[in-house]
Amino acid sequence: MSDPKPQEAGASRILAEMERIKRETPSVTNIVEAFEGLLLERERIKGEIETPEPESALTTDPARLSKGIPAVGRAGFAIPTSRLKDVYYRLAPAMIKGFPGVRPKLEVLGRAFNDGSLDLEAAIKHLLADRQNQVEKIARAARVKPDIFSFVLGQIVRPFVEKEAERIGPSLSDLHWDKGYCPVCGSWPSLSLLKGKEGRRWLKCSFCSHEWTHLRTACPFCENEDLETMEYSYAEKREGERVEVCHKCKRYVLSLDMRDRLDQTTTAATSIGLIHLDIIAQDKGFVPGAVTDWNVLDK
Ligand SMILES: [Zn+2]
Ligand SMILES: [Zn+2]
Predict the structure, then answer these.
(1) Assigned CATH for 172-288
(2) Count of CB atoms within 10 A of residue 82's CB?
């Protein structure tokens, strides 16, 4: 028997994590299942992206990094525009299955893609450069709902962005980086992970999924190191899961101690399983340091 294809290996790791989350935290089953098909298909698409030849690998500039300038930056990701529609049609069924209410909005979007009234390429550029108002402007011009358009664009680019970060990440591992934002793309982290014997703290990028080490006791968002103004909240009987809040900047990051979870091989769905901690932090008036697909909670 041959080994499973890499894209299937990645998808089955995510599936195993989702099964574990549902087993350990049954209250989030619905939301895990809503995102299940989408995360799996994104992972398969990522696995199918061909890696460029080594000679085109990026050379990272230690001097720039030491000044706190990310290696690529969000706007620097190369997204092959010829594949965007194809990726959209791969992801749309999973979105409809997970969120049946979006079907009519996606139908409008699909028509706009096809009749050319929507400038997908420009929209992706604005999304990468974090110009949300420009993304919304393009959506409104094509009579597409801005919220669904932004969500869909984020899903379409994610496999390419993550693949690129996987390629660049290893070249950064020996370089000094003490910032709370991602050394690859400059986005804020959505997760804080404790790993290894010494329990080093790793931050995971909310956009490209790259992970980097960071001071264990500092707030990633404002560099606050005053322990008097930092607080950890736990849910009852959930050792190892916590939310780290900072009273100085009023932001928080979800955190998982992975030292006794050696069998856990991915954190793709981890923050969905910690939504109960989003609720605790947001009820206290803190805001997530990074917006994810699932942490903007309805009030
Ligand atoms: Zn990143
Ligand atoms: Zn802070």
Answers:
(1) 3.90.1670.10
(2) 8
pLDDT tens profile 248-285: 999 999 999 999 888 888 999 999 999 999 999 999 99
Segment (H or E) for 104: helix 103-115
CA of 212 to the centre of ligand 1 (A): 10
Residues of each domain in the chain carrying CATH 3.90.1670.10: 172-288
Q: 């008036």: which residue's tokens? A: 285
Residue 213 has pLDDT above 70, yes or no: yes
Q: What's the pLDDT at 58? A: 61
- In whole angstroms, give the CA distance from residue 214 to residue 216: 6
**How many whole angstroms from 266 Cα to the centroid of ligand 1?**
16
Q: How far is the CA of 219 from the centre of ligand 2 (A)?
A: 5
pLDDT band at 30 (very low <50, low <70, confident <90, very high): very high
Question: How far is residue 99's CA from residue 96's CA, in Å, rounded to a whole number?
Answer: 5
The answer, yes or no, to whether residue 299 has pLDDT greater than 50, is no
Average pLDDT over residues 197-217: 94
What's the CA-to-centroid distance between 22 and ligand 2, angstroms?
Answer: 31
Cα separation, 125 vs 291, whole angstroms: 19
Distance 94 CA to ligand 1 centre (A): 25
CA 182 distance to own-chain centroid? 12
